Amino acid sequence: MKAEKNNIFSSFDEIVQKTEKEKILNQKGVTFWLTGLSGSGKTTIGALLEKKLIKNNIITALLDGDNIRVGISNNLSFSDSDRNENIRRISEVSKLFNFCGIVSINCFVSPFKASRKQAKEIIGENSFFEIFIDTPLSECEKRDVKGLYKKARTGEIKNFTGITSPFEAPENPAIRISTLNKSIEENVEELFNFVMPKIKLANDRL
Ligand code: ADP
Question: CB count, 10 Å around CB of 44?
Answer without folding.
Answer: 17
